[in-house]
Amino acid sequence: MAALFTFFFFSIWIALMLYAMTNRTKRKSKENLPYKHIVKNDPYLEVEYVNKHSTNLDDFIINDEINAHDLKKLAALNGIELSINEGWYPLVIELIKELYANGWDKKIYVIKEKYASLRFSTKSEYGSVLDNIITKYEEKSKRICETCGKDGFERISGGWLSVLCRYHYLKCRNVIRITQSGFIYNKKVYNWNEISNIGFDDKKKFLNKREVVLDINFRDSKDYLLISNKDNGFGEFINNLSEPYRTKEVQLLNRYRTVDYCEICGYLAVYDGYCECCENATWENFEKVFKYVADKAEYIYDCQLDWHEDEGELYESERNIYIKNPDYKIYFARKE
Ligand SMILES: [Zn+2]
Ligand SMILES: [Zn+2]
User: Using CA atoms, how far apart are residues 175 and 321, in angstroms rounded to an integer?
Assistant: First the structure.
């Protein structure tokens, strides 16, 4: 009898344990719910695209309906990274459509940006039809903003080359404005007497010779500023530095002492033969190197046309950083 009771209670205990265990598993799966919720909201699960269900290159479809998701899928099926920004996606989609129409096998080894140009590599031989198509699109990429896909130009920013429209370039270009007692750099106010010393930032200086970078240190703070000649207002900043801050290194920047109007953009931003605003060399500076290429009128005309296509005037007049020459002349006829 006692054995029967023991068995009865033991069975109940086992049943309770089993119930507790299943409950724990249930609780565990409930804990997983937020994660499942996130996965459900994954944009790639929701959107429709041509190759959503393709599993290999053979069943990957290339037609007029393919979009950015198909492009990402094609890169994934090739086992490569799509190392370009969204502004170039439409260009690369056009490229793969044209390659496919010319017998391409859908194999890609690299899709990336290098030196402000698209790099797209396949098995194609140098000089072949496919190779020529790729070269054509790589050339096109040099004039397309990698961020938004609008017309762009090659720019140097932070020591890196990239193709950007003026709007996206100016978004990453820093601005220095001089005030009565100091300067404002990217909306932060600094006083001259806060500065302890100014020198060249060596690493940057040698990384890119076209870019001069000043390392600015402060008295009461470990913060430092790196200000570059690619920043708008750099020349004026140098001109406003008072004597204590004109260290030996900074004196090397004496070429910033005088400023002239630019014949290309019309702004008071030319220092030592180079315009800080439109970033073109003056004709006199250009002529030293390319004397035999063009005459002055042709050079100014071409640069002004680029400045116009780049919407330079639109953005510079809005930002109001430089003084405009009242006698500025435009050499090309504007489209009415
Ligand atoms: Zn852009
Ligand atoms: Zn200029």
Answer: 9
Q: How far does the centroid of ligand 2 lie from the alpha carbon of residue 319, in Å?
A: 15
Q: Which residues surround ligand 2, an ion (CB under 5 A)?
A: 262, 264-265, 275, 277-278
Spacing, Cα 160 to ligand 1 middle (Å)? 16
Reported as a pLDDT band with limits 50, 70 and 90, residue 37 is very low
Residue 324 within a domain: no
CA of 99 to the centre of ligand 2 (A): 41
pTM: 0.76
CB 319 within 8 A of CB 175: yes
Do 91 and 65 reside in the same domain of the chain? yes
Do residue 75 and residue 136 come from a single domain?
Answer: yes
The DSSP 8-state label assigned to residue 175 in this structure reads B
- The span from the CA of 77 to the CA of 209, in Å, is 41
Q: How far is the CA of 139 from the centre of ligand 2 (A)?
A: 26
The pLDDT, as a whole number, for residue 197 is 87
- 77 in the same domain as 136: yes
CB of 186 closer than 8 Å to CB of 209: no
Q: Mean pLDDT of all residues in the chain?
A: 84
151-163 pLDDT, tens digit per residue, is: 999 998 767 889 9
**Residue 236 lies in domain:** 193-256
Nearest bound ligand to the CA of residue 165? 1
